[in-house]
Amino acid sequence: MRSRLRRSIEFVALALPVLVTALGARADALTPLLSDALVREVFPAMRYYIAPEGDPPAAAIYDVKGLAGYVFASSDVVDTVGFANAPFTIVVGIDLDGRLTGAKVVDQHEPIIDVNMLQGSVEEFTKQYDGLEYGLGWRIEPRGRSGEGTLDGVSSATISAILFNQAIIQGARIIARAHDAGEAGAAVDMMVFEPAPWPELIENEAIARLQVTGADLPSHPDNGPVIDLYAAMVAPTSIGRNLLGGLWYRLHVATRDPADLVFLVMANGSYSFVGTDVYYSGTFDRVRVVQNDTVFPLTRENYRFIPFLKATDGPTFSEIGMFWLPLASGIDPLAPWRLELDVADEEAANPGATTTFSLPYSLSERYILPAKAAPQATPPPAAVWRAVWAAQSTNLAILAVVLGLLVAMLTAMAPLARRPRLYTALRLGFLAVVLVWMGWWAGAQLSVINVLTWLQALIDRSDPTMLLFDPLILVLTLFTLVSFVLWGRGVFCGWLCPFGALQELLSRVARLARVPQVSLSLAVHKRLWPVKYVVLAALVALSFHSMTAAGTGSEIEPFKTAISLKFVRDWPYLIYALTLLAATLVVERLFCRFLCPLGAVMVIGGKLRLFNPLVRRAECGDPCQLCARKCPIQAIERSGAIRMDECFYCLDCQSLYYDEHRCPPLIADARRRARAPINAVAAE
């Protein structure tokens, strides 16, 4: 039996890395999909989400108060082709207040990023989007440069960063409009793209034209053409992409604020609208924008040379320039404006004399999005949570079996403790199920963030039905609350925590491999035990300031890395989780005992315990110290009393209690009984 048990444990040890790799590989298959772990990365306040729906599709995200925002995959919304002409996908979260909640590049094939191993820089790049207003214009600058409305790019991969930025910002705007995420006034339509050749754009009044001939100038020697001038707003996708092409539009227009005026000026003829003075003064002296009698100078700073257009059936121009006037200038892109052009008459008596011509422009209604009101953050209908429970019916049935088996084992504690080999096999098997099925497969890992969310929900008096949208966590929580009364803290921490199960299984393997174990002194224990309460108090205080900040602080729990994401995560998180697991090879359950804020919550809940099923004898502690020495987490004091606040119900002490070959009081009692007949005969 012992050899079979040992082989079973060795099999678990060998299988764990394989299971981690195999299950973790599933994360790569979630590129166009969503998972709890992935959604929480880009929307930390998420309580639950509803499957993607709509056109374009997005997952509605709910927090404890109700509808909180949306999460979408960029490839479902906008063109996501990188610098190397390979597709990429970014998962993005937006709230109802016009802000991004996070972004994560889940798939990209940019050679410059892969070859130069810039994945870490990409992660730093996307962190900049947390809390940004996606309605504003955000442009990418090389690393080290900064300014208003700028983001740091990825060193050596600036173009890729610009394209990532376009997918995030434009995608957020499109999803916000399509799903009514937040109040929105009338705006330039940067969502819908309809292909149109040059003649159709002319017909739709997307392009305005001004022709100046010699006849329009007082002293011109002939009536031939002087300048054939065109102007077109290019922020509307159905204008800009048709004129500039998809890539140029994404690089130079798509991420600008929709409230900016962005337009092209195109011309043929002997007269240049650019002139030469701009290269000295920085201001274009021949063209300007006028709106409601306000003159808006055009500067070199807000100008880009365009070599040619990509419009179908369009003319070829000798001069093309793109200008933009920011919102801060006071321009209104939805209101009519005009482009004024000063044309010098070289034959005039006054050499500096010019004639001013106007090219009026008014954006057609077809290129304007109407105003929309903000949605009400109301909870979803009850049918939704019922559908969630129906979808989890199989997992709920398995969980019921698991919990029923645990209750049976705890109820039959004494008989099992008398059969240590059977009990050990059952415990190891149970922990393996908790780790593999409950943790890695079903994702039922309780976390301190659950506790903090529920605490904030109580304070805010949120709808309690919100708890129904995570059935496995709810059932597990209710069972744990009941277990507080019957057994105390140890039932969850010792039996139902997937990360705790992983630690114990690794500790078993370490002992089999004869890894030296470190037994901390009682003095060290007394100093380290309170740390988890300090961590919990800090997280509770942080949650009142910001749940997002509390979510970041809760990363002290390695649960997301080791369980939810199955070790598929960035290297700083991996190093932290693996360091804790390495420590548990020499100090059993180091994290659970001293650092775990959820464990501190369990201790507080465990104060409700009404019973103490762990039996002791008068000799325990005086003189016998065997249980205290054998307790793997040192939860037995020198007096023999068990610290139930720290006990994980491993039942090692109970196995010793009933073992007639190892328990000193039982051995002494057996010896007394063996001597009793001899003494009786001698007395006769």
Number of helical stretches of at least 4 residues: 27
Give Rg in angstroms: 35 Å
Please state the overall shape, judged from the principal axes of the Cα atoms: elongated
Per DSSP E runs of 2 or more residues, the count of β-strands stands at: 18
Model regions low in confidence, pLDDT < 50 over at least 5 residues: 4-31
| Portion in beta strands | 15-25%
Ends distance: 47 Å
Number of domains: 4
Physical arrangement of strands within the biggest beta sheet: 1-2-3-4-5
Mean pLDDT: 81
Q: Work out the helicity level.
A: 40-55%
Please outline the major beta sheet.
5 strands, antiparallel
Protein structure class? alpha+beta
Overview of this structure, please?
The protein is of the alpha+beta class. The chain folds into four domains: 31-184, no CATH class; 198-369, no CATH class; 386-613, no CATH class; 619-679, no CATH class. Helices cover 43% and strands 15% of the residues. Strands 1-2-3-4-5 form a five-stranded antiparallel sheet, with helices on both faces. A five-stranded antiparallel sheet has the order 9-10-11-15-14. It has a four-stranded antiparallel sheet with strand order 13-12-16-17. A hairpin with a 4-residue loop joins strand 4 (89-95) and strand 5. Helix 13 (420-441) crosses helix 17, helix 14 (448-460) packs across helix 19 (531-545) and helix 19 crosses helix 24. The protein is elongated and about 145 Å long.
Short summary of the structure?
The chain has 27 helices and 18 strands. With 684 residues, it is an alpha+beta fold.
